[in-house]
């Protein structure tokens, strides 16, 4: 645990996470230790963060090619989960039709070779409609955690992910105003879940029906992941490599004061470093330390 001064107050930090704030150094240390005593021990990861992202690519590809029904990808936001999933689906030959508002049945599009992103809140009935309209394709629920918490939605997902050769989903409640929805249908699709919720907090029945990847990261893991991302030509391709390297080096030196360390932090610093301002480091330090 380290004690740092920020905005006139002392902060106790562990791996970049603020445990306590106080007016004195001793008080911050005391409350920080108390917080550590009740925190669960961090899970020891056998595989490094970049290796686990390789696993994301492989398991999502298995889902895209119908060799698996579902995968759950859990981890902090802002470090490339969504991008990695979309890239894996596209590399597998699937077409993104997320922008299509309503799917026209009987069209010339082969829906079994398509994927669709679902973001934000959904009711159980909304989930039933989504599963029906997308019953032949790969669905990606991106930070749509409501479907992983609602008991009715969970029962629908259990049916969609079951191990039977034919998976039927039913809605036996009143369907007034929804005459276009059948009371039962066969689901032939696959599902990818992307969530910031810890795997331990997710429904056990859904987890056992899916392959799971834990992308929980320490500060070291996050910086290691950014090291890997900076080496890619796809990351801010219009910015020189030396500028990106300088930005990452600066971020590493200031990781303890970053409010929410993620890829957006690196993008902000890189854009500031690329501005040509000779005092870019002062500006970058100010920007990334806001919100403390």
Please tell me about this protein's structure.
The chain has helices at residues 25-38, 49-64, 81-91, 124-133, 151-160, 204-208, 219-230, 241-253, 263-273, 280-288; strands spanning 2-6, 9-14, 17-22, 70-74, 95-96, 114-119, 138-142, 167-170, 184-187, 190-195, 211-214. It is of the alpha/beta class. The protein folds into three domains: 1-39, no CATH class; 49-214, Rossmann fold, CATH 3.40.50.300; 218-292. The protein has a six-stranded parallel sheet, covered by helices on one side. The chain has a three-stranded antiparallel sheet with strand order 1-2-3, covered by helices on one side. The protein has a two-stranded antiparallel sheet with strand order 8-9. The chain is globular. The two termini are 17 Å apart.
* Proportion of residues in extended strands: 15-25%
Radius of gyration: 22 Å
Helix/strand structural class: alpha/beta
- State the major sheet: 6 strands, parallel
Q: Give the tally of β-strands.
A: 11
Query: In which range does the helix fraction lie?
Result: 25-40%
Name of the top-level CATH class of the largest domain: Alpha Beta
Give the CATH topology of the largest domain: Rossmann fold
Give the name of the CATH superfamily of the largest domain: P-loop containing nucleotide triphosphate hydrolases
Outline the low-pLDDT stretches: none
| Form type | globular
Number of domains: 3
């Amino acid at each position: 645990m380290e004690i740092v001064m920020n905005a006139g107050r002392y902060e106790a930090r562990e791996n970049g996470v603020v445990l306590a704030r106080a007016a004195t150094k001793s008080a911050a240390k005391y409350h920080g230790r108390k917080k550590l005593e009740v925190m669960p021990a961090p899970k020891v990861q056998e595989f490094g963060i970049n290796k686990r992202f390789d696993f994301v690519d492989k398991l999502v590809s298995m889902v895209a090619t119908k060799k698996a029904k579902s995968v759950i990808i859990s981890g902090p936001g802002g470090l490339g989960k969504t991008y990695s999933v979309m890239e894996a689906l596209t590399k597998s030959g699937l077409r993104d039709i997320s922008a299509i508002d309503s799917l026209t049945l009987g069209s010339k599009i082969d829906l079994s070779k398509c994927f669709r992103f679902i973001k934000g809140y959904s009711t159980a009935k909304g989930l039933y409609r989504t599963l029906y309209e997308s019953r032949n394709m790969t669905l990606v629920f991106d930070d749509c955690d409501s479907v992983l918490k609602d008991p009715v939605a969970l029962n629908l997902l259990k049916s969609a992910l079951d191990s039977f050769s034919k998976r039927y989903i039913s809605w036996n409640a009143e369907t007034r105003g929804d005459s276009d929805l059948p009371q039962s249908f066969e689901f032939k699709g696959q599902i990818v879940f992307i969530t910031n919720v810890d795997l331990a907090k997710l429904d056990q029945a859904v987890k056992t029906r899916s392959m799971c990847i834990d992308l929980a990261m320490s500060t070291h893991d996050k910086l290691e992941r950014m090291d890997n991302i900076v080496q890619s030509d796809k990351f801010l391709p219009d910015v020189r490599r030396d500028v990106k390297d300088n930005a990452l080096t600066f971020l590493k030196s200031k990781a303890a004061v970053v409010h929410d360390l993620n890829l957006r932090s690196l993008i902000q610093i890189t854009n500031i470093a690329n501005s040509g301002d000779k005092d870019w480091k002062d500006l970058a330090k100010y920007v990334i330390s806001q919100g403390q």
